């Protein structure tokens, strides 16, 4: 545990973290982990965070050393996609029982499970996750993994992020540390080149990175490792030979990017593939960093040409939605998704932003949003569900874009809602992703169901006397009479 504590302290001191830079030494030492509220849905433990980051490595077996529920709670909670291997979707756990704990059988059971996986699946590597119970009873996972790796001749990677260590975000970072300590730099590629890059913190949700990769392919840029979306073990093991890194979700893996820069001199930048300007900016930054590291400067011109072509196509497609969406009011309660690029693109087609959360936006992003929003008070860190519901009930928005946890607030207010967080079913990255996002907003807003659910229910309709019924409504009244057997048409009125 002392090595885990040292690692956590090291993570709290991360100099590349923007929030950390604004803190004094004492505040940095306290870290970012907030105590959890008993009874509240905590949003995942450190183990869950580590699993989120590593599970998308698709050809690896992910073995959870824990009682059954830890794996049950964390398995497949995101819609990340694989272009090949399916082993990552098979659930492996040692299923520790009370008897194992009492009899001290944990380490033996873990070793046996590693052997069974090796014999049945022959994966290129096995990732072993520590959790609360084995950490509390003192199972030495690192030693078991080392012994198993020697015995079975394959990498067995310990991921030391037991749930009680802290938040989901801390677990994300501990997963990055596990890659740094045990995986990256352990294989030498024989095809390293000046156009190789790493993408960190890209999860390939709903396969959205596949909307971006063709753009990189056209520029001759090779993604040596995408960590973790659709990743392969050997690609990650040789990620140290990339020339530049783009960090997509900086809160998850900024420590990994900075340490790779320190150790292997790979420069990094934080960027986003959400929105048109976001995607163009990211492509330009990648090209610039590659040139800085020795690539031919002609790539800059080719990048500009590709951006011009793709932006023209995207704006043409978006123009078709302008007449349908102009003046519509959107409330963005995104949390994780980079708000700035989405805000900018939506405003470009005439959508009004009546509020946007900036909780996970960088300081730079907040400045940009402040500049383009009409009212500064349309930016908020977080909004309590009660306030969110009040705002939606007052009809101050036409749609809410958010994560699944707040969807019922919008639905209760009888308002269209679109999932924009990790459980979403549509890819929103790159130019085509932005067009898809706008298409989904259009579909949601114009779905006829909203008109129907907002109508007063028939049982709240005022009775209208037969002789007062307008003659033109006879047909509607007749239909209602059929739907409500036992009630005569004369009893019914207009809704
Ligand atoms: S908090 Fe501990 S016991 Fe609960 S899921 Fe996380 S690792 Fe498992």
TrEMBL record:
This protein may play a role in the biosynthesis of the prosthetic group of nitrogenase (FeMo cofactor). One of its GO terms (biological process) is protein-containing complex assembly. Coiled coil: none annotated. The keyword Cell division does not apply. It holds the Pfam family Oxidored_nitro. Residues 45-443 form the Nitrogenase/oxidoreductase component domain. PROSITE patterns: NITROGENASE_1_1, NITROGENASE_1_2. It comes from the Bacteria. Keywords: Nitrogen fixation. Gene3D superfamilies: Nitrogenase MoFe cofactor biosynthesis protein NifE, C-terminal, Nitrogenase molybdenum iron protein domain. This is Nitrogenase iron-molybdenum cofactor biosynthesis protein NifE. Belongs to the NifD/NifK/NifE/NifN family. InterPro entries: Nase/OxRdtase_comp1, Nase_comp1_CS, NifE, NifE-like. Pathway: Cofactor biosynthesis; Fe-Mo cofactor biosynthesis. The keyword Cell membrane does not apply. GO terms for molecular function: nitrogenase activity.
